[in-house]
Amino acid sequence: MTRIAALLTLPLLAVLMTAIPAQAAQLYRWVDDKGRVEWRDTPPPANAKAKKVEQRTIGGSVIETSTLPYSVQQAVRNFPVTLYTSNCGEGCDKARAHLTRRGVPFTQKNPQDDVAGYKKLTNGGMEVPLLFVGNDRLRGYESGAWDVALDTAGYPRTPAPGYAAPKPAAAPASKPAAPPPPVPEGLEPAPAQ
């Protein structure tokens, strides 16, 4: 009876050993006082005259991946998302929330940081929010148009399980406005518009 139990136990053990993934293990390497290289899964004994103990971690059979799914990595590479916002209120807040809710990685920029460059980019306009999905430019926030552009670029409608988009700052800080230059005598300042 014990021989039959042993024959049944061996296949079961083989299946269990292959089903359990390898866990990360520590490996120690050192050279002893006689010049022999020792490799063990435990640190050298306290009485050993070891020279230069190296500790290494041996991982299991798991393939490391980034936090982004491959399809999102491709969308980011081919159609990067850039959001230009300022302290414009509800429109900019909704724009940031929309991208975050979908789990879209994006770069947020403040047009006040480079006014001349922004005007060149927008053909003289200063409206925000402004979204670039690759080369496509979307002025203002309109959720339907933004969803179409993001869907076309390959971004998912919902964040991937376990992925949380980085939380951008509530609003980018704008540079303080420089005081107006003094008005020469005899000239009137232009009326505020």
Word description of this protein:
- The chain is an alpha+beta fold.
- Among the domains are: 22-60, no CATH class; 70-153, Glutaredoxin (3-Layer(aba) Sandwich).
- The chain is built from five helices and seven strands; from the N terminus they run H-E-E-E-H-E-H-E-H-E-E-H.
- It has a four-stranded mixed sheet with strand order 5-4-6-7, covered by helices on one side.
- The protein is elongated.
* The CATH topology of the domain at 70-153: Glutaredoxin
Instruction: Sketch the major β-sheet.
Output: 4 strands, mixed
- Alpha carbon gap, first and last residue: 100 Å
* Overall CATH architecture of the domain at 70-153: 3-Layer(aba) Sandwich
Just give the CATH class of the domain at 70-153. Alpha Beta
* Helix and strand run: HEEEHEHEHEEH
Q: What proportion strand?
A: 15-25%
Alpha-carbon Rg, integer: 31 Å
SS summary, helix count: 5
Principal-axes geometry comes out as: elongated
